[in-house]
Amino acid sequence: MSGFKPRDWSSHAPYIAPDYKSTILRGPTKPLMSLSGGISEASGPVFARAAVRDLDWDLTRNGRVNGEPIGERIVVHGKVMDGDGRPVPHTLIEVWQANAAGRYVHKVDQHDAPLDPNFRGSGRCMSDENGNYVFYTIKPGAYPWGNHFNAWRPNHIHLSLFGPGFATRLVTQMYFPGDPLLALDPIFLGTPDEAARNRLISKFSIDKTEEGFALGYQFDIVLRGRLATPMED
Amino acid sequence: MTYGETPSQTVGPYFAYGLTPGQYGYDFSDIANHIVAGPDAKGEHIRIIGQVLDGEGMPVSDAMIEIWQADHEGVYRTEPVSIENAGFRGLGRCGTGTDAQNRFVFETIKPGCVVDATAPFINVTVFMRGMLVHAFTRLYFDDEAAANARCPVLQSVPADRRDTLIAKRADTATGPEYCFDIHMQGNRETVFFDV
Ligand SMILES: [Fe+3]
C-alpha cells in the first residue's frame, strides 16, 4: 500500500495563530515529530452508501417539522480530488452550519437570533465514482463570536471529510464569494497564504443554479495526494 | 497539473449536532460513536479514558477525539464502518462535552500489532475549537514495555516525552481501563506527529 505525500504546510494555518485567541492555549507548541509512510496512516475508515440516508444530503428537508426552513435555498456542488487532480470517490462528507439567521441548533449557542423549527443544519453526502458531490441547504447567516470587539464570522458551512486514509482526514469550512467579513475573520485569515485561503471560497455558478429553486455554488476540495506509484499509466 | 490542498479549518464549538449527534442528544443518525468494538468483537475488551488539557491545564469541553485502530490480530478494517455492527468497527468518535469531567471514553479492544510495527498502538486525532489543523498522536500501552522498547517510533521520540504517548492501565471492577490524557501544551505536552 502506498502512503501519502507529506502535508503541505504552506496550505495550512499554524497551530498558534494569535489573532484567533483560542489557539494561544490550545495549539501544540513543540515541533511535530515526523511519522512517515506506514500502513497505519495509509489505512482509514470507509463507509457504505447506506451511511447516507434518505434526506441526509438535503438540509432544506431533513429538519422539517411543520413547514419549509426560512432563507435562501442553495445547492452546493463540488469535486473531491487529490493534489494530482485524481478524483477521490465514495468518500463521506459531513456538513453542519448555522441557519439563515446565523444561529446554530447547538444547545450552547447563545447568539440572540431565532432558531428555525424546520432547519437542523446538519447532513451528509458521499462523493460518487468521479469524486463529485452535491447537497442542498439554506445559505447560513453570519454570527457574532467573542474573539474581539464586533467579531462576526463570515457565512460558512463546516465540512468534514475522510478521504482514502487516516492521513487525508480534513475538516474545513466553505465560504461565499464577496463576503466583506472574510477580510476581518481571524479563522479564515489564519491560513497565511492568500492563494491557499482563497481555495476556501466557493464560486457562484449560474450553471448549477436551479431555475426557480436554488442558487448554485461550486466548492472543490483537494486532499493530499498519494506518493507516486511506479509504472502508472 | 497539480492542485493546492484545501486548508484545514477548526471544527469550532458547534460540531456536536453534525458529528456526534447521538452522544449530545440531537435527532440525527451517527456514523461513528464511542464504541470502537462492540460486544461481539474478539480480543481483550478495554476502555480508554482521558481528558484534553489546555496550556493552563484546564480540561477542554469542546474537543472531539477520533481513534482508528487495528483489530485484535493487528489488521485494519477494510469493510465499511457501521454503528450497527456489534463486532469490531475500527473507528471511534467522542466529544468531551457530555461528561462532568470533560473526559472522552471509548469502549474498544486492545489492538494486535500491525505488520510494520513492533508494538500495538491506536491512532488518535484531536479536533477542537481553537485548533485550525487537527493534531495526530498515538496511544501505546504501558503493559507492553518490552514491545515499546523495540518500537522505532517511540524510540525516535525524546526519552523525556515518550511517556506522553503511553496509556496507563488500571484493572477495575468493570474491566481494564487505560488512562490517556492529552496535554496540548506545557512541560507534559503530548507528542504530536506530522502524519
Ligand atoms: Fe461555524
TrEMBL record, chain A:
Organism: Thalassospira profundimaris
Database matches in Gene3D superfamilies: Aromatic compound dioxygenase
A GO term, aspect molecular function: ferric iron binding
The protein's name: Protocatechuate 3,4-dioxygenase
Pfam families (UniProt xref): Dioxygenase_C (PF00775), PCDO_beta_N (PF12391)
PROSITE patterns: INTRADIOL_DIOXYGENAS (PS00083)
Family: Belongs to the intradiol ring-cleavage dioxygenase family.
InterPro entries, sorted: Intradiol_dOase_C (IPR000627), Intradiol_dOase_core (IPR015889), Intradiol_RC_Dioxygenase (IPR050770), PCDO_beta_N (IPR024756), Protocat_dOase_b (IPR012785)
Oxidoreductase keyword on record: yes
GO BP: any one term: 3,4-dihydroxybenzoate catabolic process
Keywords: Dioxygenase, Oxidoreductase
Domain (Intradiol ring-cleavage dioxygenases): residue spans on this chain: 76-104
Record lineage: Bacteria, Pseudomonadati, Pseudomonadota, Alphaproteobacteria, Rhodospirillales
Keyword NADP (UniProt): no
From TrEMBL, chain B:
A Pfam family the protein falls into: Dioxygenase_C
Protein name (database record): Protocatechuate 3,4-dioxygenase
Keywords: Dioxygenase, Oxidoreductase
UniProt GO MF annotations: ferric iron binding; protocatechuate 3,4-dioxygenase activity
Lineage: superkingdom: Bacteria
InterPro entries, per the entry: Intradiol_dOase_C (IPR000627), Intradiol_dOase_core (IPR015889), Intradiol_RC_Dioxygenase (IPR050770), Protocat_dOase_a (IPR012786)
Family from the record: Belongs to the intradiol ring-cleavage dioxygenase family.
Alphabetical list of PANTHER family matching this protein: DIOXYGENASE, PUTATIVE (AFU_ORTHOLOGUE AFUA_2G02910)-RELATED (PTHR33711), PROTOCATECHUATE 3,4-DIOXYGENASE ALPHA CHAIN (PTHR33711:SF9)
Keyword Oxidoreductase: yes
Entries under SUPFAM superfamilies matching the protein: Aromatic compound dioxygenase
